[in-house]
Specification:
Length: 859
């Protein structure tokens, strides 16, 4: 016979010839299991029941493609928890119905007549709970509660509604306020032509590229998700942009502020000139909330210049309309409301009076405050006409300005000056940065046949003393690509060569004190061109060293011994024309003292950065740094390596004659001193006191610091001196860079919750195997590369966001520094994979949202 025995938790099954003994006494009752969620027994402890809503609309009769006057569309609405249990409306905290349309921004209104709702100016929703009880539809005409909890809601007869696409939407909150849902359904009135949202379908909107946590089931992070509007935040309102947004933000909605004005102004951010002021000339009321976005900067894009006007990244950020608009309505549907949302200082019908009305005697529009052009100082208006036909010279300031606009009482003449093909300021030209760039842009230029040879080890592996020989071809971006043959002779071209590694923690092995080697300098190497093969070759003068170079601007840091592993050869060529610089680059991974397959570095990916910062034609993020030369996010760490610091004492900036001409003088850290680099007695602004002591520009720290800057505690930056006259407060996150410029990032904050690590640490999804490994930072999972680098805790990364004094002390106490070798951290004990406070657990904001609320956007 078989007998089953349980001993100390183990189960054994074996043969036994004896007879069964008497039944033993009943044991004590075990502990109760975890409490399940009401109506959802399979939920885990601490997990809420969840909430979903579905809404469908009846079909027009007789096979019609749209509803006509007299028709009454019927909505069917149901609610359920995550276990599929259907809920009655009375079990919810709230449930509201919205109906709006048509979709054209200047026409969209809440369809109060269809909703059986009072026709008040801002009546936006119909409450589906308070008038509904178990007996049926008391209080709301045309609403019926079915026995299973389903609602059928018959809209009132269609009458004079404008033709177009209409949307019915449901916003509901469950018994637990953390359970929220939003659902949409579209239907046609008066036309079969479906109107699209300018940002694309709500579930794949262009808004999501910046604002969505990319994990499965991730939240969308806009203004309503943050606690404050409600104690837990109303994240469902942000979930389906711009479909959910227009439910309230339309021309007759719950919010008096339209989405047209709200979205443009918010993304204009710090460049608003008259934030939130009322514009009665196009029926836009005051919006005091917009002043809260003066610390917002839209992710920058490439810049360009026009004669007499120098544009900087600061004023070019929000000009690329195509980053949000998926259709061309921004070129064709020109209106005062749309243009005025960003150009908020333009009052098209004249000055606004104290009573909020428009001056009836005005003969022209007013621009207040004036729009100021940069460039050379002017002494007469004639010097400003190249910038705009209506520009004038402010003699007292020397600035060309716009102070007036043609009087516009409607939108009929907007296209005359700003339509496609107009000659004054066509919006498709002045707002399309890609049309500014082709004469000087290197988008689409390609390196081909790139090789790095010279390794003396097995399979071409490099050893100490070897010289890496770089060969490549460069082709332009014409329809039929032609080789670029003048890199050597054309002074507009400059090339840079860097080698760093290993890819697990790069330090430069070939480079200069502040970066890379100039490929056109005879002292750093030999650069040649073979016309017959259209191939360039660069051979550095130096040989592969045993030790890496010192980290940039580091103090007291010994260069690391170059360990065996994969090293990256990175080179880029920049071309400067008419003050605009662009670059094209390539990278090759080579083995050093190893026969293992090489691994590139992809802790972050180009695509992840480009999702928010925009993407150029050649796939790089539109985030060009260091004079528009560095665009490759995967190679920033080659110079921004561990222990690298920003500039400090002795750094030189602009030529000067007095200390008052030095930007940092008023901050107490820069004076005018003799220029040791010249012998003619010239003077130069020189740093005398480090304004950013101990500040690292290590890429791992730099990126985390910047993307969470607004909410950091700032312990590491407490000694930063700042530069008060330039608006840079002491003790804030700033870095000393080129020409002693102090760059302040204190107000930067990622548009998505920074705990969503995979938004930046994205999967490359490359195919992989034992012989074709993933890049460093990626792990091979079921034949595909998955980014798991963000799950490895290190003080170097973690105390960038967790940067209070006690966080710093915590990291220091858990780090052991031996007499030789690198420091040893014990972070994995508590924060490693499977630990109680593992990174993937404490940063998990999707599955157990109840324990990880969104944080306020302001300190």
């Amino acid at each position: 016979m078989l007998r089953k025995l349980t001993l100390l938790g183990a189960v054994f099954i074996g043969a036994c010839n004896g007879t069964p003994g008497p039944v033993g006494p009943v044991g004590p009752q075990g502990d109760a299991g975890p409490q399940g969620v009401a109506g959802c027994p399979s939920s885990n402890t601490g997990q809420t029941a969840g909430l979903t809503a579905t809404v469908t609309v009846s079909q027009p009769g007789d096979g019609a493609a749209f509803f006509s006057p007299g028709d009454q569309p019927v909505l069917t609405i149901a609610f359920a928890n995550s276990c599929g249990t259907q809920l009655f409306p009375s079990e919810l905290s709230s449930a509201d119905l919205f109906v709006y349309g048509p979709r054209a921004p200047l026409q969209t209104v809440t369809a109060t007549a269809l909703m059986n709702s009072p026709s008040a100016t801002f009546a936006a929703e119909q409450n589906l709970i308070s008038p509904v009880d178990a007996t049926g539809d008391a209080g709301v005409p045309n609403l019926t509660l079915q026995p299973n909890g389903t609602i059928t809601y018959q809209l009132s007869p269609i009458t004079s509604e404008d033709a177009g696409t209409y949307t019915a939407s449901i916003w509901a909150i469950g018994p637990n306020p953390l359970d929220q849902t939003f659902a949409l359904v579209d239907f046609q009135i008066g036309t079969a032509t479906v109107e699209s949202y300018i940002s694309g379908p709500a579930d794949s909107s262009s808004c999501l590229s910046c604002h969505k946590n990319d994990a499965v089931g991730g939240k969308v992070y806009m203004d309503h998700i943050a606690p404050g509007f409600s104690p837990t935040g109303n994240y469902a309102l942000d979930s389906l942009p711009i479909g959910s947004c227009k439910s309230c933000h339309n021309n007759k909605g719950y919010s008096p502020n339209t989405i047209l004005h709200k979205v443009h102004a918010v993304h204009r951010g710090s460049h608003q000139l008259a934030p939130g002021i009322a514009h009665p000339e196009y029926n836009e009321p005051a919006d005091d909330s917009l002043s809260a976005f003066l610390d917002v900067n839209y992710p920058p894009f490439p810049v360009a210049s026009t004669p007499g006007l120098t544009l900087t990244a600061d004023v070019a950020m929000e000009k690329d309309c195509t980053s949000c608009h998926t259709n061309n309505v921004w070129q064709t549907n020109i209106s005062r409301a749309a243009c005025g949302a960003c150009h908020d200082n333009v009052f098209f019908a004249g000055a606004i009076l104290a009573d909020g009305g428009v001056d009836p005697t005005a003969t022209q529009g007013v621009i207040n405050p004036p729009t100021v052009f940069g460039g050379a100082a002017c002494t007469s208006t004639a010097q400003c006409t190249a910038l705009s036909s209506i520009a004038t010279c402010n003699i007292s300031t020397g600035n060309c300005e716009l102070t007036y606009h043609q009087k516009m009482t409607d939108d009929t003449a907007c296209a005359t000056c700003h339509g496609v093909g107009s000659v004054i300021a066509p919006v498709d030209v002045v707002h399309n940065i890609t049309q500014w760039l082709p004469p000087i842009s290197l988008d689409g230029y390609k390196f081909q046949n790139v090789t790095v040879t010279g390794g003396s080890g097995p399979n071409g592996s490099f050893n100490v003393g070897d010289k890496p020989v770089l060969s490549f071809q460069l082709f332009d971006n014409e329809a039929t690509p032609a080789p670029v043959t003048d890199l050597i002779t054309n002074s507009a071209w400059a090339g840079t060569f860097i080698v760093a590694g290993p890819t697990s923690n790069p330090q430069r092995t070939f480079g200069s004190a502040t970066g890379g080697l100039s490929m056109k300098s005879a002292t750093t190497g030999a650069f040649t061109y073979n016309a017959s093969s259209q191939t360039y070759t660069y051979t550095p003068t130096a040989t592969w060293p045993a030790n890496a170079l010192s980290p940039i601007n580091s103090v007291g840091v010994a260069p690391q011994v170059n360990p065996a592993g994969s090293y990256t050869v990175w080179f880029y060529w920049a071309r400067t024309t008419a003050t605009i610089r662009d670059a094209v680059d390539a990278q090759v991974v080579v083995p050093f003292q190893t026969t293992e397959p090489v691994q590139a570095r992809q802790v972050v990916t180009q695509a992840a950065c480009a999702s928010c910062h925009g993407q150029s034609a050649d796939g790089f993020p539109r985030l060009a740094e260091h004079g528009d030369q560095r665009k490759n996010a995967e190679t920033c760490n080659m110079c921004h390596s561990q222990y690298a610091q920003d500039f400090g004492v002795g750094a030189t900036g602009l030529a000067c004659t007095t200390s008052a001409q030095c930007g940092g003088n008023s901050g107490g850290w820069e004076t005018c001193q003799p220029n040791s680099a010249v012998s003619d007695g010239g003077m130069i602004c020189t740093v005398t006191v480090d304004p950013t002591p101990g500040i690292y520009i290590d890429f791992q720290q730099l990126v985390h610091d910047i993307h969470f800057a607004r909410l950091r505690a700032g312990y590491q930056e407490q000694a930063n001196l700042g530069n008060p006259p330039a608006g840079i407060p002491a003790g804030t996150l700033n870095y000393l860079g080129f020409s002693n410029s102090l760059s302040n990032f204190q107000q930067v904050l990622s548009p998505v919750d920074v705990r969503s690590c995979t938004n930046c640490h994205a999967d490359s999804k490359a195919a992989c195997s034992s012989t074709a490994p993933c890049a460093f930072g990626q792990n091979c999972v079921s034949g595909s590369c998955v980014n798991l680098a963000w799950q490895s805790p290190t003080a170097r990364a973690c105390i960038t966001c967790h940067d209070a004094a006690d966080d710093t002390a915590h990291a220091a106490l858990n780090t052991y520094t031996p007499t030789s070798g690198p420091p040893i951290e014990s972070c994995n004990v508590c924060h490693g994979e499977g630990a109680e406070f593992a990174v993937d657990m404490v940063h998990n904001i999707t599955t157990l949202y109840s324990t990880h609320l969104a944080y306020p956007r302001e300190p």
